[in-house]
Amino acid sequence: MSQRLISIVLPIHNQADQVTAMVEEYEAALMKLPVPHELVLVANNCRDNTWDICQTLTAKYLNVRAVHTPRGGWGLAVKLGLREARGDLLCYTNSARTTSQDLVLMLLYATVYPHVVVKANRKIRESWRRRLGSLFYNLECRALFDLAVWDVNGTPKVFPRSFTKLTGLKRDDDLIDAEFVALCRREGYPVLEVPVFSTRRRSGKSTTGYASAVKMYLGAWNLRQEMAETDGEHATP
């Protein structure tokens, strides 16, 4: 582990048509940072040739590494990438949505405030349905976990490795972001939300539909119960 290294975890699922351009764009922008970086590509449950392309990119770029898992899941991919990351400053983000400008902005904030969690607060959604669904979910999480953040799922999320609870996330699914911010609240990790206005999506469609949204709403309640039980166990003498 280097004290002068930023690790950026990029979960990738069936993105063969965009992963090369994405890495090239990120690399060109990240080279402007005042500290070195590494990209950790996490190919999860890919049914196209994404993994082959990732391996090609690792041969082209010395600071790009790639790992593969046959299992799917946003949370699973995030956890796998964080375990592989070598840096002292850790980041993970939605590679399909994050522009290089937004990524660099978050990382610059994090280098200036190295003992703070820095995360994006997406201000714009593609449709009124997504705006309404996001509002409901964020209000639910704010109430359940006593949060101050406004965009639970907003990425990039950047944090120092010294915030050890965040390197031990447990969720394998989309609720890992709710777990992340709930742990920040419980552990007293300060959080800085930076507004992001980009709506660009590289390609493909979001996997969040009505069924998955309902699952997240119910899952937030279950996560609250799980964390309460864990807190109770730790408090038992």
Please give a structural write-up:
The chain is α/β, with parallel strands linked by helices. The chain has a single domain (2-232), classed as Spore Coat Polysaccharide Biosynthesis Protein SpsA, Chain A, CATH 3.90.550.10. It contains seven helices and seven strands; from the N terminus they run βαβαβαβαβαβαβα. It has helices spanning 19-30, 50-60, 74-84, 100-112, 128-145, 176-187, 210-235; strands at 2-12, 37-44, 64-69, 87-92, 117-122, 157-160, 191-196. Strands 3-2-1-4-6-5-7 form a seven-stranded mixed beta sheet. α1 links the parallel β1 and β2. α1 (19-30) runs parallel beside α4 and α5 packs parallel to α7. The longest helix has 26 residues, at 210-235. The radius of gyration is 17 Å and the shape is globular. The protein starts with a strand and ends with a helix. The model has no long low-confidence stretch (mean pLDDT 91).
CATH architecture field = Alpha-Beta Complex
How far apart are the first and last residues' alpha carbons, in Å?
36 Å
Q: Provide the number of structural domains.
A: 1
Helical fraction: 40-55%
Q: Quick one: how many beta strands?
A: 7
Give the CA-based shape.
globular
Q: Provide the CATH top-level class.
A: Alpha Beta
CATH topology: Spore Coat Polysaccharide Biosynthesis Protein SpsA, Chain A
What is the C-alpha radius of gyration, as a whole number of Å?
A: 17 Å
Distinct helical segment count: 7
User: What is the mean pLDDT?
Assistant: 91
Uncertain segments: none
Q: Major sheet: size, sense and barrel closure? A: 7 strands, mixed
- Going by CATH, what is the homologous superfamily? Spore Coat Polysaccharide Biosynthesis Protein SpsA, Chain A
